[in-house]
Amino acid sequence: MVYFNEQGDTTLSKVVQSVEPSIQPGDRLSIVVSALNPISAAPYNLTSTTLAGTTAGLAAGYLVEADGTIQFPQLGKLQVAGMKRKQLVDFLSKMLTKYVNDPIVIIELLNFKITVLGEVNHQGTFNIPEGKVTVIDAIGLAGDLPFTARRDNITIIREKNGNREFGKINVLSKNAFSSPYYVLQQNDVVYVEPTKDKVAASDQSFIRNFSIATSVLSVFTTVVVLVINTIKK
Question: CA-CA distance, 157 to 56, in Å (whole number)?
């Protein structure tokens, strides 16, 4: 199966830019602080310290609470929801200069995941450590699409500001690259519809199996009635 077959012999002059996801409540962030003087940075790389009742800096990362905040050593409660990763890096670097000379802050999103459902070879939820993934990447993770899958009407289900939105993308078209749903966001669900032929075949199979089951039940009922009548005689 050929993807983007509307492209022909032309070369795409514009490649869609990756959209970096915003930090959301429920995200887990790995935050590592380093400096020329490791001792000065050590307090900000906790491994088993509890702050204000919240375990911070564990291997599971800093949990972004429902109110969009994290508890960070020395700096206390910080509002981080809505920020891009780079924005938070710059913010923490600026705040930490009061305590650390030339701090280097590295942040990773630990629980970035997407789910692929429907007419794919391997349905499932996939973790994306690098935090960047496209629809084509998702299809690859799901083992590609069988011939019974619709490639022209893939649905992306996305949670945004507490609301659920549904987007469509056609991966047979070069216009897929410019779709706002081509680059996936964390917790996106990709749903691939079966073709009409697959649906029709499934319906026919159901009808055939139902007819067989009905026939078997009818025969069974007849046998039971005959046995009961024989016993009565």
Answer: 32
Q: Give the residue from 231, 211, 216, 186 showing the smallest Cα distance to 20.
A: 186
**According to the model, what pLDDT value does residue 5 have?**
59
pLDDT digit string, tens, across residues 56-100: 444 568 999 999 999 999 999 999 999 988 999 999 999 999 999
Q: What is residue 103's predicted lDDT score, i.e. its pLDDT?
A: 95
Cβ within 8 Å of residue 124, ≥6 positions away: 115, 116, 142
Top-confidence residue, 90 or 18:
90
The CATH superfamily assigned to 28-109 is wza like domain (3.30.1950.10)
Contact yes or no for 122/149 (Cβ under 8 A): no
Beta-carbon contacts of 192 under 8 Å, excluding residues fewer than 6 positions away, are 116, 117, 118, 119, 120, 145, 149, 150, 154, 155
Task: State which H helix or E strand residue 183 sits in.
Answer: none
Alpha carbon distance, N-terminus to C-terminus of the chain: 68
Tokens of 155: 């649905």
Domains of the chain: which residue ranges?
28-109, 113-192, 206-233
Pick the CATH number of 113-192 from 2.30.110.10, 3.10.560.10, 3.40.640.10, 3.30.559.10: 3.10.560.10
Average pLDDT, the chain: 81
